């Protein structure tokens, strides 16, 4: 296959917003088989293969280079690789899907307002409780990097694939690192974001994979696609 | 020039020398003990796999912990044993998974712990000399010395463990010292709330119940109330600026060991600290290292320490000209009890990075 492959989130608000964004930029993406089909088409770019995929898979495949470009969140890219700059190139921030990856602790922890407090609590938690302080998250890599930056090593991660905000109440973990847009889910679960607890501000972006095979031919195809979209100034491919 | 396998054979003789028991811990180890001892930061570098029953394993990332665990499990704790090892270890970092070869010794329960450390130094020098790296730069770090300075320096007791916990992490340490210094310049301290500790704990407990938290599974209401007051007390209990200056000055000290140790001794006499024991130990090891021919440069770096709290006394690295770490180790008296020994056991050891050493010889 010589054409480019574009990954679009396969469901929910992200799918709608992505398709709208492309439509506004002049490229209407059709999904002929409806929500059960995972192939898309666009009238103006017959050679462009459009695949509907979960946003997490899009991030992973961009990093691997098995798709050429795709719409996904900064959080998923940063979680997927320690070297996001080397793995992908951001062609355009799309202005939707805005959310923060944050460190949140139970409200009753009135003595913990900053990361330095977490460091202090972590340091003697094991002596007090006979186990490590536990943090539930699906962002294990982001959490490790952020905690390491703050010099916190005395903790254990509990991988959580959903409903992370419930982990402290159910006793699975002591506090969490999670994605939040309005903070209302956190508040409803009695959790509070630390003052310096924003690990990452995320939003949906159109990413170009650096790991994909960029022959002169395919670079030209990418430039052509970008000029159709009229989003990105020419010359993007010089950065690949 | 000798072919590489002959040099490996020479290295084998070192780890199987007389009085040294060569051991071969399993390649597949339970990951839990690494997370327990070293936390998530080291955990990041493990190559993990999970058994069908969910128990997590890792490929052997180093030798010390399995060797010491085995020694404790066999009921040997306290008896003098010297172990030698050589074999592959597995780590991963940003650039992917790696297989390295490590060779090293662990001297446990030796009657004279300082002599044991000298033997470790001698082993490392000999191992490097197999690869014609005759004069590595030796960098010493003083865990015991830093702990002695902390114990001597005037400050509220609550701060000592907090400062100790950051030793070996330059950024975290300087952030903490900055924060401690800022607290002097800052706004006047907020007066503590006019409620007593018990009612504050009750208030926290009520909040926990209301939000559905178990008041016993995680941090306890009393613990939170206690730390809340402690934090206020901490904000009020300033670490004297003179102490912060001293710690900053001390941690910036780095240079040829002999001169630097004199400097630290002068510092100790100005502040009237008793640092005689850790300084004497450092001077002794500097002297024995200098006595090994051909003579290497011995540096002392006050802020150098592995970020693992079980290291004690003296730690070291041997470096190539380009700064690559060829061997590292030191004393780790606190590890044995962490791994279940009921008695304190002195321990010293080191690991030589065989691939790097081979690489250095070629370049």
What's the short story on this structure?
With 240 residues, chain A is of the alpha/beta class. Helix content of chain A is 34%, strand content 27%.
Give the C-level CATH assignment of the largest domain in chain A.
Alpha Beta
Q: How would you state the average pLDDT of chain A, rounded?
A: 92
* CATH-scheme architecture of the largest domain in chain A: 3-Layer(aba) Sandwich
The run of helices and strands of chain B is HEEHEEHEEHEHHHHHHEHHEEEHEH
The oligomerization state is heterodimer
Average of the residue pLDDT scores of chain B: 91
Strand content of chain A: 25-35%
Q: Main beta sheet of chain B, described?
A: 9 strands, mixed
Distinctive features:
heterodimer; A: 240 residues; alpha/beta; D-Maltodextrin-Binding Protein, domain 2; 2 domains; five-stranded mixed beta sheet; elongated; B: 363 residues; alpha+beta; 14 helices; 47% helix
Descriptive account of the structure:
The complex is a heterodimer of chains A (240) and B (363). Chain A has 9 helices and 11 strands. Chain A is of the alpha/beta class and 240 residues long. Chain A has 2 domains: 5-98 and 203-239, D-Maltodextrin-Binding Protein, domain 2; 99-202, D-Maltodextrin-Binding Protein, domain 2, CATH 3.40.190.10. In chain A, the strands form 2 sheets. Chain A has a 6-stranded mixed β-sheet, sandwiched between helices. In chain A, strands 8-7-9-6-10 form a 5-stranded mixed β-sheet. The longest helix of chain A has 15 residues, at 115-129. Chain A is elongated. The model of chain A has no long low-confidence stretch (mean pLDDT 92). Chain B is of the alpha+beta class and 363 residues long. Chain B has a domain at 197-236. Helices cover 47% and strands 20% of the residues of chain B. Chain B has 14 helices and 12 strands. Chain B has a 9-stranded mixed β-sheet with strand order 1-5-6-12-11-10-7-9-8, sandwiched between helices. Chain B has a 3-stranded antiparallel β-sheet with strand order 2-4-3. In chain B, helix 11 runs antiparallel to helix 12. The longest helix of chain B has 18 residues, at 113-130. The two termini of chain B are 14 Å apart. Classes of the chains: A alpha/beta (240), B alpha+beta (363). Chain A binds chain B through residues 82-83, 106-111, 116-117, 119-121, 123-125, 128-129, 132, 144, 147-151, 153-157, 168-169, 171, 174, 189-190, and chain B through 35-36, 38-44, 94, 161-162, 165-166, 169, 171-173, 175-176, 179, 204-205, 207-208, 210-214, 217-219, 221, 223-224, 227-228, 230-231, 307.
């Amino acid at each position: 296959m010589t054409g480019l492959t574009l990954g679009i989130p396969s469901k929910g608000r992200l799918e709608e917003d992505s398709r709208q964004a492309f439509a506004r930029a002049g490229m209407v993406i059709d999904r002929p088989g409806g929500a059960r089909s995972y192939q898309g088409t666009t009238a103006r770019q017959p050679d462009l293969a459009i695949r509907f995929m979960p946003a997490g898979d899009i991030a992973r495949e961009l990093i691997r280079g098995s798709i050429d470009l795709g719409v996904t969140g900064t959080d998923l890219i940063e979680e997927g690789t320690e070297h996001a700059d080397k793995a992908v190139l951001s062609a355009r921030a799309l202005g939707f899907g805005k959310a923060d990856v944050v460190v949140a602790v139970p409200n009753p922890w009135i003595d913990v307002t900053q990361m330095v407090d977490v460091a202090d609590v972590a340091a003697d938690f094991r002596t007090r409780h006979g186990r490590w302080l536990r943090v539930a998250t699906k962002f294990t890599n982001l959490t490790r990097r952020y905690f390491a930056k703050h010099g916190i090593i005395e903790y254990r991660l509990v991988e959580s694939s959903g409903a992370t905000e419930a982990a402290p109440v159910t006793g699975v973990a002591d506090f969490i690192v999670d994605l939040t847009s309005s903070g209302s889910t956190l508040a409803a679960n009695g959790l509070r974001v630390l003052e310096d607890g924003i690990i990452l501000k995320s939003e949906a972006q159109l990413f170009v994979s650096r790991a994909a095979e960029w022959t002169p031919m395919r670079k030209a195809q990418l430039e052509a696609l970008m000029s159709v979209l009229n989003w990105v100034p020419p010359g993007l491919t010089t950065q690949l | 020039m000798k072919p590489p396998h002959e040099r490996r054979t020479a290295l084998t003789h070192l780890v199987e020398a007389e009085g040294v028991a060569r051991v071969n811990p399993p390649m597949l180890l339970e990951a839990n003990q690494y997370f327990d001892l070293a936390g998530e930061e080291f955990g990041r570098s493990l190559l993990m796999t999970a058994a069908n029953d969910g128990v997590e394993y890792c490929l052997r990332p180093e030798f010390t912990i399995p060797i010491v665990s085995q020694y404790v499990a066999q009921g040997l704790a306290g008896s003098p044993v010297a172990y030698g090892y050589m074999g592959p270890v597995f780590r991963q970092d940003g650039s992917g998974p790696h297989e390295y070869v490590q060779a090293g010794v662990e001297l446990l329960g030796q009657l004279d712990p300082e002599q044991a450390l000298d033997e470790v130094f001698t082993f490392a020098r000999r191992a490097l000399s197999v690869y014609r790296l005759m004069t590595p730069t030796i960098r010493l770090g003083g865990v015991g010395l830093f702990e002695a300075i902390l114990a001597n320096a005037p400050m509220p007791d609550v701060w000592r463990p907090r400062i100790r916990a950051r030793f070996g992490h330059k950024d975290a340490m300087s952030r903490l010292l900055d924060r401690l210094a800022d607290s002097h310049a800052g706004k006047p301290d907020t007066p503590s709330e006019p409620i007593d500790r018990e009612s504050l704990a009750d208030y926290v407990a009520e909040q926990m119940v209301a939000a559905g938290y178990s008041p016993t599974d995680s941090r306890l209401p009393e613990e939170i109330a206690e730390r809340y007051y402690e934090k206020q007390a901490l904000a009020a209990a300033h670490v004297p600026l003179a102490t912060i200056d001293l710690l900053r000055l001390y941690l910036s000290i780095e240079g040829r060991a002999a001169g630097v140790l004199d400097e630290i001794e002068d510092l100790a006499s100005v502040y009237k600290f008793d640092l005689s024991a850790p300084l004497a130990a450092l001077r002794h090891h500097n002297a024995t290292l200098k006595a090994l021919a051909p003579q290497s440069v011995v540096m002392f770096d006050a802020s150098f320490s592995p970020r693992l709290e079980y290291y004690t006394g003296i730690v070291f690295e041997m470096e190539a000209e380009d700064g690559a770490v060829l061997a590292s180790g030191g004393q780790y008296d606190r590890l044995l009890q962490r791994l279940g020994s009921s008695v304190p056991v002195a321990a010293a050891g080191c690991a030589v990075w065989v691939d790097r050493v081979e690489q250095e010889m070629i370049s």
